[in-house]
Amino acid sequence: MADPTTDPGRTQPQLAAGRRVLGIVPGTPATGTRKEPDRDEMVMVWPHLLVRHAVAALAVLAVVLVLAVLFDAPLREIANPTNTPNPEKAPWYFAALQELLSLFHPQVAGVLVPTAILVGLAALPYIDRNPETSPGRRKVVVATFTIFLVLWVVLTVIGFAFRGPNWDWVWPWVEWHGEL
């Protein structure tokens, strides 16, 4: 019988009772004495780490500032509660949920379906008890998540681009009702 910690067919080393470790380091176990790192091996938080974080934050800030100067993003007109746009659309990231609301009862589309999706995705690792960690060997998990993702993207595209006045079906290349 092969040693479970060095089985070449496994992507990660396995221990008894189904516990996984990130890797096996060859060597002798510690005898209770802790080796203190040399002063040359230590990297101080200040200035090394904090300076790198500050430079990265300033770089991101500079990119955002350049994008804000180059691209105009004007506000719309002041909201008029007596004149709502037709169709009134949710932002693109809620378009799939709005499309579900147009297809099902609000309690089903707004409460039960999102709750079932979240509970199902959270329970997926417990349903598929495959011990492999490679995505290529986790067919059930990958297929389930891919189907969910494709359906959600399709509902988002339909809700954002293919819905017009009175929530009727329109072709986006004929008449555009999405935001740009």
Walk me through this protein's architecture.
The chain has 180 residues and is an all-alpha fold. It has helices at 45-70, 95-103, 106-127, 139-161. Among the domains are: 44-75; 92-167, no CATH class. It is flat, with a radius of gyration of 27 Å. The model has no long low-confidence stretch (mean pLDDT 81).
How are the SSEs placed, and which strands pair?
Layout lengths: L44 H26 L24 H9 L2 H22 L11 H23 L19
Question: Based on CA inertia axes, which overall geometry fits?
Answer: flat
Tell me roughly what share of residues is in helical segments: 40-55%
Number of helices: 4
How many strands in all? 0
Brief synopsis:
The longest helix is centred in the first third of the chain and has 26 residues, at 45-70. It is built from four helices and no strands. Helix content is 44%, strand content 0%.
Task: Looking at this protein, list some descriptive labels.
44% helix; 180 residues; 0% strand; single chain; mainly alpha
